[in-house]
Design a protein that fits this description.
It is a single chain. α1 packs antiparallel against α2, α2 runs parallel beside α6 and α13 packs across α16. A hairpin with a 4-residue loop joins β3 and β4. This protein starts with 19 loop residues before the first strand and ends with a strand. 34% of the residues lie in helices and 18% in strands. The strands form four sheets. The protein has a seven-stranded antiparallel sheet with strand order 1-18-17-13-12-9-8. A seven-stranded antiparallel sheet has the order 7-4-3-11-10-2-19. A three-stranded mixed sheet has the order 14-15-16, covered by helices on one side. The chain is globular and about 55 Å long. It is built from 18 helices and 19 strands.
């Protein structure tokens, strides 16, 4: 049944959004239902940490095109009474049974690479552990309360949003062609029970998802890692030739980490350390510190941003991995003198960049703030849209495909080994100044993420934009070598000038590839000012 007489996925005219202000709290998410879930918890006496878990759990329900209960998660948490920023890495390692030898012996490699879908690229899911750790360390409320809105959405249903319906349809058509083996049957039973994708405005219910969330809440996550749910995951993995086992889940722990930082024009920019790629954004800003930017909309500004980003990625993709396997200290790549060295390599022409030695696209990003001054930057991902395409039988648990980023080349820093953490794309950001919190920010979207961080921060710091303008401004994305995509609102004249400098510029009409962002900044009077993503169903709930 057709839901509307119009096409809600097609927007003929650009919309205009203003930044929003709040006194007692703010929840910024990529869907209005998730923002409402966070606000509900704030009003029940929860703090920002409780609200972020409520919103994150809701997003596994109302935005399954980007994340799920089987996701990974990272977070930066500002505790106002301590004036301290905490970091947590809750991504999972490769299962102990997963090795290059096993993949090859079982004939599961994809032309010498880890396959993108199926059970093979599934690593240990981490987001549930993030929920329990953050709740246990900082929360006011138990998971039985913070997960209640998500359970309600899953049981009673919610109307599918326009932007998400477009992604759902694209993935369904793709998966229908690719997913022929029985291991994918549960995905179709869960997300296309009538043999078709859901339409915008149609009510979606996920009853198995609700049962699993309720069991997670009632056992404080123990069932997921050491109880009935863990055994169900193990059984389904074995039934389809997967490598994830009960023992991998039972031994998993999230890691509390010290954020990495760089000083950018008096602001302290904070990111999670490796194996995440947050330091790619920091490296680019460390390079850009050596230039003065007086004008945003000119070819020289964009050229330097692009070349700095390419240099940062050249080093990041060469060095970033499981910290135990990195060939260099991450902080060496962030030294001011190394930034100056790399900046000196930027001339007037586009170049193909390679790494140096400093010593010689599915993800959801959300952020939250409360009346006490606590703020949280949080990101959760199944990696590629619905992830691996695996949904654990009768549980609603969609598993990520993060193992796809492992290499089968023994010389590569991300060479697969059992128990290893691979290069990870999802990164929450946080901004400070003179020891005080300015606020959380983030832009999701695989390798777009550090590029989005740099663009949004420069819009705010260098060009004086408010959080909404900083997010709305036209974006670019470096792809490889000299290839750069720009979105439809990007200046055609500047694109021509960049082309004259040697950049291979292409126009991308779909906004989906440029990421979804959120941002909150705290004003001198304690009021919060926030922006949300206009390219998607972004929403801010105010308290």
């Amino acid at each position: 049944m057709k839901m509307t007489s119009f096409d809600p996925t097609y927007q003929k005219y650009p919309s205009r959004r203003y930044p929003l202000f709040a006194k007692n709290g703010m929840v910024n998410c990529s869907t209005p239902q998730a923002a409402a879930a966070g606000l509900e918890i704030l009003k029940k006496g929860g703090n920002a940490m409780d609200a972020i878990i409520a919103a994150a759990a809701a997003l596994t329900v109302v935005e399954p095109t980007a994340n799920g209960i089987g996701s990974d998660a990272f977070s930066l948490i500002w505790v106002e009474k301590e004036k301290k920023l905490y970091g947590i890495s809750s991504n999972g390692p490769a299962p102990m049974a997963l090795s290059p030898e096993a993949v090859l012996a079982d004939g599961k490699d994809d032309h010498g690479k880890i396959p993108q879908h199926g059970w093979t690229p599934v690593c240990v899911p981490g987001c549930v552990k993030a929920w329990t750790e953050i709740t246990g360390c900082f929360g006011n409320l138990p998971l039985t309360e913070t997960l209640a809105p998500a359970i309600r959405y899953a049981e009673e249903g919610w109307p599918l949003g326009a932007a998400q319906s477009r992604v759902w349809t694209e993935r369904f058509l793709d998966y229908r062609e690719k997913f022929r083996s029985p291991e994918f049957d549960e995905w179709f039973r869960t997300f296309a029970p009538e043999g078709r994708p859901y339409e915008a405005g149609e009510i979606v219910k996920l009853p198995n998802h609700a049962k699993t969330l309720r069991e997670i809440a009632e056992t404080n996550g123990e069932s997921f890692y050491t109880g009935r749910i863990a055994r169900a995951i193990d059984a389904d993995s074995r039934a389809h030739g997967g490598y994830l086992r009960y023992e991998d889940l039972a031994s998993y722990q999230a890691r509390w980490v010290e954020p990495l930082t760089v000083n950018y024009r008096g602001y302290t920019v904070c990111e999670i350390p490796p194996s995440g790629q947050g330091m790619v954004a920091l490296m680019a800003l460390n390079i850009l510190n050596n230039f003065s930017f007086r004008e945003k909309d000119c070819a020289a500004t964009y050229h330097r941003q692009l070349e700095a980003m390419k240099l940062a990625f050249a080093d990041g993709l060469h060095y970033i991995s499981d910290p135990r396997d990195m060939r260099i200290d991450a902080k060496d790549l962030l030294k001011p003198e190394y930034g100056r060295k790399r900046a000196a390599e930027i001339g007037d022409r586009a170049e193909v960049r390679t790494h140096d030695d400093p010593n010689s696209g599915g993800t959801v990003y959300l952020c939250c703030a409360d009346a006490e001054g606590n703020m949280v930057s949080y990101i959760q991902s199944n990696y590629n849209a619905f992830g691996s395409g695996i949904v654990v039988k009768d549980t609603g648990i969609a598993l990520s495909n993060r193992g796809f980023d492992f290499s089968m080349d023994p010389a590569h820093v991300n060479y697969l080994r059992p128990g290893k953490y691979t290069y990870h794309t999802i990164i929450p950001g946080f901004l400070m100044k003179e020891g005080e919190a300015v606020g959380p920010f983030g832009v999701m979207g695989a390798y777009m993420q550090p590029q989005g961080h740099v663009q949004v921060l420069m819009n705010y710091i260098d060009f004086g934009m408010d959080p909404q303008q900083a997010l709305d401004a036209p974006r670019w994305q470096w792809i490889r070598e000299k290839k750069v995509l720009v979105e439809s609102s990007f200046s055609s004249e500047i694109a021509r000038q960049l082309k004259a400098r040697g950049h291979d510029i292409s126009l991308e009409l779909s906004p989906g590839g440029f990421g979804k962002g959120q941002m909150i900044v705290k004003l001198p009077n304690g009021v919060y000012c926030g922006g949300t993503e206009s390219r998607y169903d972004g929403s801010i709930a105010l308290y």
